[in-house]
């Protein structure tokens, strides 16, 4: 058997035992059994509760990327102007999906160490707001920057622009109010703060999006990524493809776990704040200057340290896995995921303890006892 470390990465995350057990129960035929359609619909309703929305919710059989591509495929037609709000790797990555479906990308670029500046965005939109939709990332995981959707999405919607949000690494760990914030499509994944096994995308889809899909001049250029074919699955008792029933049963348990825990966001906030405080006190530097997500901490690699070796040392000696990053951040930052089931004091203390031991092994001298400072801080909140 695979030796499994404590997975303190920004997804996949630890999966609670009741979720793992749920995944192993006997299954019916999900295409033919009417009761499964009810189960699927109820699960969607519960996800809607989590997202604070009355919009339609769908669960797709494929990790977060599928939801993102499906949203772009379903909305984009040849020549459509799409605003891509970019202050990170996933922010920029939306442009590739838009282009794949022949959309015309216009970037709004922010500073990659900061959350999107609202005044700059407003000035930009006052000059040009002729966009079918805009894309924005909630928490851009490679850098950990968190954008203020509560302000960004209403600003876009006011200009008649549909809003497409990637909240894969924030949904379930950061506040998300789909209806109040006017989010037309929000995409999440099963494997991040939801703490279910990887494999599912979750989306909420507004009436405006259904209208936009129905009023297209040309058909959606995909089957698997077509959100419109999901519209009447319940009435028609027809799924476009056999739903991954075991994954969906597990997801339902994970969602029930979150809904039963009314302190879940507070828990993420206390953990996130305390980790950041301890990291700074130790003489390390956080990557961003503001817009800190409570789901992941992104730390600059100290001068002279090889982050790959450091991470390997943590796995070999402490059985703790944290992450590096990719793209322009490769080799430059370390990332500790403290999301979902991993937003817990005991495992975060152990992770910080192992990080300190590893840093010291490679010659970095911490200015304090990181795990102790974390504990003092969290108990003062
Ligand atoms: C994890 C993640 C995704 C999805 O990536 P997968 O490869 O499907 O896990 C999308 N967006 C963000 C911001 C993410 O953190």
Mean pLDDT: 98
| CATH class categorisation of the largest domain | Alpha Beta
Give a list of the ligands. pyridoxal-5'-phosphate
List low-pLDDT spans.
none
Cofactor: pyridoxal 5'-phosphate
Family: Belongs to the class-V pyridoxal-phosphate-dependent aminotransferase family.
Domain Aminotransferase class V: 30-264
Pfam family, one: Aminotran_5
Brief summary:
This protein is 40% helix and 15% strand. With 381 residues, it is an alpha/beta fold. The strands form four sheets. A seven-stranded mixed sheet has the order 2-10-9-8-5-3-4, sandwiched between helices. Strands 1-12 form a two-stranded parallel sheet. A two-stranded antiparallel ribbon has the order 6-7.
Task: Report what the structure shows.
Helix 2 runs parallel beside helix 9, helix 5 packs parallel to helix 6 and helix 10 crosses helix 13 (370-380). Helix 4 (89-100) links the parallel strand 3 (81-86) and strand 4. The longest helix has 18 residues, at 34-51. The protein has helices spanning 17-22, 34-51, 64-75, 89-100, 118-127, 149-158, 207-214, 233-236, 245-259, 264-281, 307-318, 345-361, 370-380; strands at 6-7, 56-61, 81-86, 104-109, 133-137, 139-140, 145-146, 162-166, 185-189, 200-205, 296-300, 320-321, 333-337. It has two domains: 17-259, 3-Layer(aba) Sandwich (Aspartate Aminotransferase, domain 2); 263-380, Alpha-Beta Complex (Aspartate Aminotransferase, domain 1). The strands form four sheets. The chain has a seven-stranded mixed beta sheet, sandwiched between helices. A two-stranded parallel sheet has the order 1-12. Strands 6-7 form a two-stranded antiparallel ribbon. The mean pLDDT is 98. The chain has 13 helices and 13 strands. With 381 residues, the protein is an alpha/beta fold. Bound molecules: pyridoxal-5'-phosphate (PLP). Pyridoxal-5'-phosphate binds at residues 11, 63-65, 90, 137, 140-141, 166, 168-169, 189, 192.
């Amino acid at each position: 058997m695979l030796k499994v470390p404590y997975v303190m990465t920004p997804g996949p995350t630890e999966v609670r035992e009741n979720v793992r057990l749920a995944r192993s129960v006997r299954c019916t035929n999900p295409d033919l059994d009417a009761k499964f359609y009810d189960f699927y619909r109820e699960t969607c309703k519960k996800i809607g509760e989590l997202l604070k929305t009355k919009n339609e919710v769908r669960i797709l059989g494929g990790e977060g990327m599928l939801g993102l591509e499906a949203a772009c495929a379903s909305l984009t037609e040849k020549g459509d102007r799409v605003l891509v709000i970019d202050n990170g790797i996933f922010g920029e990555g939306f442009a590739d999906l838009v282009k794949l479906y022949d959309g015309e990308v216009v970037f709004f670029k922010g500073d990659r160490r900061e959350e999107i500046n609202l005044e700059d965005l407003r000035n930009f939109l006052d000059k040009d707001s002729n966009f079918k939709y805009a894309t924005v990332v909630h928490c851009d995981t490679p850098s950990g920057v968190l954008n203020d959707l509560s302000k960004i999405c209403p600003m876009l919607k006011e200009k008649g622009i549909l809003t497409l949000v990637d909240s894969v690494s924030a949904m379930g760990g950061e506040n998300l109010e789909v209806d109040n914030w006017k989010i037309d499509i929000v995409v999440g994944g099963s494997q991040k703060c939801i703490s279910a096994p990887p494999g599912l995308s979750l989306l909420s889809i507004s009436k405006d999006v259904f209208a936009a899909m129905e009023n297209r001049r040309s058909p959606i250029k995909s089957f698997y990524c077509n959100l419109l074919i999901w519209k009447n699955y319940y009435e028609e008792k027809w799924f476009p493809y056999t739903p991954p029933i075991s994954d969906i049963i597990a997801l339902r348990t994970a969602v029930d776990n979150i809904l039963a825990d009314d302190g879940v966001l507070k828990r993420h906030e206390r953990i996130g704040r305390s980790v950041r405080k301890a990291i700074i006190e130790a003489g390390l530097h956080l990557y961003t200057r503001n817009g800190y997500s409570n789901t992941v901490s992104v730390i600059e690699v100290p001068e002279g340290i090889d982050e790959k070796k450091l991470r390997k040392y943590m796995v070999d000696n402490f059985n703790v896995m944290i992450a590096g990053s990719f793209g322009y951040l490769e080799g430059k930052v370390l990332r500790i995921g403290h999301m979902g089931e991993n937003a817990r004091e005991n495992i975060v203390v152990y992770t910080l303890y192992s990080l300190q031991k590893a840093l010291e092994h490679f010659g970095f001298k911490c200015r304090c006892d990181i795990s102790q400072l974390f504990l003092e801080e969290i108990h003062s909140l």
